[in-house]
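Structure tokens please, single chain.
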Amino acid sequence: MGSGGEHKEDPEISVFIAVLTYYSYAILVLFGHVRDYFAKLFGRSRYVQSTPKAGYSVLLKSWESFYTRRLYHRIQDCWNRPICTSPGARIDVMERVSDNNNHTLGLSGKSTTCINVGSYNYLGYADDWTKTCAKDVLGTLDSWPASMCSSRMDYGSTSLLQELESLVANFVGKEEALVLPMGYNTNVTTLSCLMGEGTLIISDNLNHTSLVNGSRASLAQIRVFRSNDLSHLEEVLQEAIVHGQPRHHRPWKKITVVVEGIYSMEGAICRLAGIVPIVKRYKAYLYVDEAHSIGALGTTGRGVCEYAGVNPDDVDILMGTFTKSFSGMGGYVAADKKTIAFLRACNQGMLYHNAMSPVVTQQVITAFKVIMGLDGTSIGKNKIIRLRDNSNYFREKLTEMGLHVYGDADSPIIPVMIYLPCKIACFSRECLKRGLAVVVVGFPATPVILSRARFCISAGHTRKDLDDALAIIKEVADMLLMKYSNNFLGV
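Here you go.
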């Protein structure tokens, strides 16, 4: 499966393409301001706002508003495309149309069947759900309500949740686990609960927004290190310990290093085997977000610890979600008994949020049992092998095309760099015309010059699905001059 120690360098953007990308954004921003100026001068624009009422400020004035109006709205049809099937290897994408220059979008009533390389359907449960999970999940409705309508501190705790927590703890190799109803809020509520005044969070600079917001919601100070840069992590830890807290320089009460198993925008796998010794050397705590790696990495799907050959005991907090590999929702935190007991008493996701639905809980339980082979079949084992093989095959073929491909082998997330803003919409639209549903990502989700298409590979994809997708990508990449590894012009 891989040792987790080999990480290739991502391709570098050429100076020519970087300058051209900045120039393209400059043109868009300039013309956006010109249009705003004439809209204000003549009072005619789809965005013109009348004079605000007394005591109210102008709504459309910030940079965020400008970006949304003058850049995003031009290409907003590339995102939020509804589908009318399960998010399997092939999906039906509903057509969206506009009669006012893309300002608002409606549905035409038509749909297009597409190969899906954009969903987090890592283990393919969306493709074989009726064979693997449906019986158990639908049967849950005979014994349980569809929703508990209560937090776990009131009447929301169920024997199903207790069973799931036991499964999670056993699967990831921890003493206990706490299951929460929302993956995003698992990070937000857990970090804000664990880290108080006088503590320090050292965060990877590519960490997910949920980790960023959880850190900000806590009372901790925050430092950042360059993603997967072990020497910089050690430098930040040394500086923090030497100088202590700001102003009075007392020692930090607690230092926690926060990383991800797989970085969702980069497709890079955490260098956990190198991070653990550094964290232990400086007596810090380690928090690992496995939203994208649990179920997807390791010979048995147990995540980045198994993949990197790291003992789970060397990681203080293992967090993960059920929305990717398990086709459910919610998240978990796994740690020692004392830590989980503390979180049960103070975590807002435990105290106030509605408990996870029994139906969803059963979905995750069944998915776990399939992965672990507790269903008496080898379906789970085959899913994990097929996901790895599909991911590496797709990545290899994209690289051979001459595209700039980010991330590591064995990662099911495969970003391909687009760079130029005009190509973001073109790539998405041309792929859709040819029956390929893709996800394109640009600023502010990525740096300005690092726009990309992000492919998510699934165990549900057949080799024909992947070959058909690759043929479409090759055709569109040739059309848009995206083969930047061949030369600086991308041809």
